[in-house]
Amino acid sequence: MTTHPAPIVIGYDGSPGSVSALEWAAAQAGRAAAPLRIVEAFEIVIITRPSPGKVVPLEAVRTARRQRLDEVAAKIRVEYPGLRVETALIGGAAAKTLVDAAQDARLVVLGSRGLGGWSGLLVGSVAVQVTTHAECPVVVIPHGFQPRAAQAPTVVVGVDGSKYSARAIDFAFEQADAMHAEVVALHAWTSPYLTYHDGESMLEFDEDKVREEAALLVAESVAGAAAAHPDVRWSTELPEGSAGLALIRHSESADLVVVGTRGHGGFTGLLLGSVGQNVLHHTQCPIAVVH
Fold first, then answer.
1. Can you list the positions of beta strands (E) in the chain?
2. Where is the UspA domain (predicted)?
C-alpha cells in the first residue's frame, strides 16, 4: 500500500504577509518533497446598508479568486519543478478554514497578519487562533520578514524539559537537517534569590550548580533528537532571566525559532503558554509553534 506524504498547508489571501508565507512554505515543501496545499478562505460579509455603484455577483468574485489561486500555483510550479501543488478555495472564516484544512497536514504556514487585520497589531487574530487550535506544527512568518543570506542558518529551540518542549526539539532538529542549519538549544534559568521584606535576608545558592543542572537538562532533552540527526550541529545557550525575552533576542539573527505550546509552569487551561504568546507577538524571524 502506497502512502502519500502529508502536505504543507499555506494560508493565502493575497496580502504581502501571505506572499512571504507562501515563499517560505514552498521552499520547505521542496526540501521535504511534500505536497504544497494553498488554501484561501472565501468569507461572505453581509452589509446591510445600501452600497452605491455596481454590485458584483458573488459567483464572479469566486471565479476571480479561483483564477488568482490558479495563477499563484502556476508560478510555484515553475519555480519548483516536480513539486505537487494543490489549491483550495473554501467558504468560511479564515482561522477555522485553515485549522480544518490542516487536519492531515505535516505543517501549516501563514503570515502574522493578512488583509483583514488591524494595522496596529503585530500578530493578527487568525494567526493566534490557528497556532492555538491546529493539531500540527504551525509556522508564522512575521510582518516584513526578509530571508537572511546567512551562510550558516540557525534554528533556535526553547528547552524546559516538558513534553511540549520535547516535541519542539524533535521538530527543530528535523527542520535543521532539511535546512542544513545549526540548532541552538536555549534554556533560560532564573536566580532563586529570595529577598525578604527587610531587604537583607537572602536565600543562598550555588550559581555554578544551577548552571550545571541546566546544562544537564538540555543535554538529556536533546540527546534523542541529536542521535536521530547526527549531521546536525548543536550548541547550548543558558541565559539568565526570561525565556521569552531570550528567544526574541535570538530571533534577530536566527532563521527559525521553535517553541512548544506550553512549558513547565503554564496553566493547564491555556492552549498556548505565555512564552509562546510573547515570542509569537515579537519575533523577528519565522516562529514554529509545536503541539
1. 8-11, 36-42, 85-91, 107-111, 138-141, 154-158, 182-186, 234-237, 256-260, 287-290
2. 7-142, 154-291
Report phi then psi at 257, rounded to 5.
-110, 135
Q: For the chain, what are the domain ranges?
A: 8-141, 154-286
46-60, 68-82, 245-259, 268-282: the lowest-pLDDT one? 46-60
Are the C-beta atoms of residues 157 and 168 closer than 8 Å to each other? yes
Question: In degrees rounded to 5, what are phi and psi of residue 110?
Answer: -155, 160
pTM score, whole prediction:
0.85
Q: Which residue is it, cell 494567526?
A: 127
Name the CATH superfamily, with its identifier, for domain 154-286: HUPs (3.40.50.620)
Please give the CATH superfamily to which domain 8-141 belongs. Answer: HUPs (3.40.50.620)
Q: Extract the C-alpha cell encoding 122.
A: 503585530
C-alpha–C-alpha distance, residues 285 and 251, integer Å: 5
Does this chain's domain 8-141 share its CATH topology with 154-286?
yes
The Cα–Cα gap between 151 and 215 comes to 27
End-to-end CA, the chain: 29
pLDDT of residue 148: 77
Coil, helix or strand at residue 18: helix
